[in-house]
């Protein structure tokens, strides 16, 4: 691999001659200190050189002779590392200096797929590295062993290759191969995770686009709904205003005609004419003066145009998507007003009843303001003179709390009016129940037992007991023969207490039988 300079020393140290230089391999990120001889002193990668030559041999086609330059090289000297033509191959074998060199055919090398050539010594060209210097831990040639390493222990390479090869194989098989498998497995998982991530991102992007398209369609549909709502409000308000205008014009014509006739009669008519038309004229003027035929009062301009758009208020869902933005029509539509609460279902004498009036607009939405003229009247249907005072409390949010306390039992009518008009369902029918009379005594077998023999203890039953006892006793005269209430004498435990009028009619000496409710 290509090495790039990389130094941790300062500029002054790098400028000194002979200073060591550290290079960084761009492939494995390893730091290597260059020897003093420079890059040429690095270990040669013979396998890489063989692969380069074989690749050149396969891809570049016929090679030329490196000695004579003629094309069509047929062999290669492994020791000299040169390509030779047929003539140079024969001459290479005849020369004494190169007669021992191994010359292989290029076709054989191409078919074999690898080079089997000796590794030559860089100090003594032509000498093969056949020995191994153990102190220097380097392969050497015989001449190096005899000169440069003569005091070192040098052994044949084939004698030590097993020991060093086994160490390499042990590191590869015991440590690096499992780690390689783990790294490959983790890399495969990372690739799978990347593919899954990309697939999920693509799926989420499709979902986002589909959601955006659907949401845009929902917003557009909601917009059309709001516009139609505005058009409906405009048409409804316009119809109401046209009707009120026609009613007011008719009332104006009636009143103006009556006034003009009366004034002309008084100013131009004789006494006899005035007296003869007096009856018809007075009845007409009286009916108009009472205002019985006056139409509904015209709303104020700001009330007739009272509507607003609330862009941040939730408007429910459209096509499955939540949307916001509603139109509030602030004008009260009496036909849409509603009454809620149990106070219109049932009531009890002496107990406060309660219900709520909710004012709504033409869309059925609750009006967000108060101030309406609300009239509530509670009248007994059988006793017209019996009226119940009702209290109306304005909550300021379009709802009104109504409370009343009936004093008479029986059927009642509840009138609920907004702006002098009945709300839907008014007048309501209400039945007021009589107040339940609870027992104030004790449910006992007799006065003697419940009081512990007290002579002053009394009982509501007609029973008596001799010996100065004022209450009842077992098997004595008037005792009902079963447990009963001491306050009224009723023999039913879950019953209503008998009224005082019944108790006043009961005499301790009488034979009035107890009535079971």
From TrEMBL:
Matching entries from CDD domains are given as: Bbox1_TRIM45_C-X (cd19809)
- PROSITE patterns (alphabetical): FILAMIN_REPEAT, ZF_BBOX
GO CC terms in record: nucleoplasm
Q: Is this entry keyworded Coiled coil?
A: no
Signal peptide (residue range): none
Chain positions of Filamin repeats: 329-432
- State its Enzyme Commission number(s): 2.3.2.27
Q: Which GO terms describe its molecular function?
A: ubiquitin protein ligase activity; zinc ion binding
Which stretches make up the B box-type domain? Answer: 116-163
Record field: catalytic activity: S-ubiquitinyl-[E2 ubiquitin-conjugating enzyme]-L-cysteine + [acceptor protein]-L-lysine = [E2 ubiquitin-conjugating enzyme]-L-cysteine + N(6)-ubiquitinyl-[acceptor protein]-L-lysine
Q: Which GO terms describe its biological process?
A: nervous system development
* Keywords, ordered alphabetically: Metal-binding, Repeat, Zinc, Zinc-finger
Q: Which domain of life is it from?
A: Eukaryota
Question: A single Pfam family, by name?
Answer: Filamin
Name this protein carries in UniProt: RING-type E3 ubiquitin transferase
Taxonomy of origin reads: Eukaryota, Metazoa, Chordata, Craniata, Vertebrata
């Amino acid at each position: 691999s290509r090495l790039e300079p990389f130094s941790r020393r300062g500029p002054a140290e790098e400028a000194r001659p002979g200073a060591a230089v550290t290079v960084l391999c761009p492939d494995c990120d390893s730091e290597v200190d260059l020897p003093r001889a420079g890059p040429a002193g690095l270990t040669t990668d013979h396998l890489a050189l063989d692969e380069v030559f074989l690749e050149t041999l396969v891809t570049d086609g016929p090679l030329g002779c490196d000695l004579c330059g003629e094309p069509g090289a047929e062999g290669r000297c492994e020791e000299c590392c040169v390509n030779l033509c047929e003539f140079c191959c024969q001459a290479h074998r005849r020369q004494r200096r190169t007669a021992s060199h191994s010359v292989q055919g290029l076709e054989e090398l191409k078919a074999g797929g690898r080079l089997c050539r000796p590794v030559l010594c860089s100090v003594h060209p032509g000498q093969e590295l056949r020995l191994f210097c153990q102190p220097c831990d380097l392969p050497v040639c015989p001449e190096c062993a005899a000169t440069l390493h003569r005091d070192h222990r040098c052994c044949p390479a084939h004698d030590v290759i097993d020991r060093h090869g086994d160490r390499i194989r042990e590191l590869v098989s015991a440590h690096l191969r499992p780690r390689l498998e783990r790294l490959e497995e983790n890399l495969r998982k990372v690739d799978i995770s990347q593919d899954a991530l990309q697939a999920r991102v693509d799926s989420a992007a499709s979902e986002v686009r589909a959601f955006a398209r659907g949401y845009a369609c929902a917003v557009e549909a909601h917009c059309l709904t709001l516009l139609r709502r505005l058009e409906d409000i405009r048409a409804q308000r316009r119809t109401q205003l046209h009707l009120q205008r026609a009613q007011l014009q008719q009332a104006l014509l009636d009143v103006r005609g009556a006034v003009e006739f009366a004034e002309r009669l008084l100013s131009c008519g004789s006494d006899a004419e005035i007296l003869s038309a007096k009856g018809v004229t007075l009845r007409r003027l009286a009916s108009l003066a009472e205002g019985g035929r006056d139409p509904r009062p015209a709303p104020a301009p700001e009330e007739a145009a009272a509507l607003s758009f609330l862009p941040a208020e939730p408007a429910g869902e459209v096509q499955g998507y939540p949307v916001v933005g509603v139109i509030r029509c602030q004008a009260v539509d009496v036909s849409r007003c509603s009454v809620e609460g149990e106070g219109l279902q049932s009531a009890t004498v002496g107990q406060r009843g309660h219900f709520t009036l909710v004012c709504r607009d033409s869309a059925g939405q609750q009006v967000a303001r108060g101030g309406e003229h609300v009239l509530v009247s509670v009248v007994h249907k059988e006793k017209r003179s019996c009226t119940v005072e009702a209290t109306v409390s304005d909550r300021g949010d379009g709802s009104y709390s109504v409370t009343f306390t009936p004093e008479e039992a029986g059927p009642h009518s509840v009138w609920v009016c907004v702006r002098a008009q009945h709300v839907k369902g008014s007048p309501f029918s209400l039945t007021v129940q009589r107040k339940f009379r609870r027992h104030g005594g004790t449910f006992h077998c007799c006065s003697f037992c419940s009081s512990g023999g007290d002579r002053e203890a009394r009982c509501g039953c007609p029973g008596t007991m001799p010996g100065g006892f004022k209450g009842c006793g077992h098997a004595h005269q008037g005792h009902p023969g079963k447990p009963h209430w001491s306050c009224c004498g009723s023999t039913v435990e879950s019953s209503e207490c008998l009224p005082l009028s019944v108790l006043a009619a009961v005499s301790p000496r009488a034979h009035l039988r107890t009535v079971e409710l």
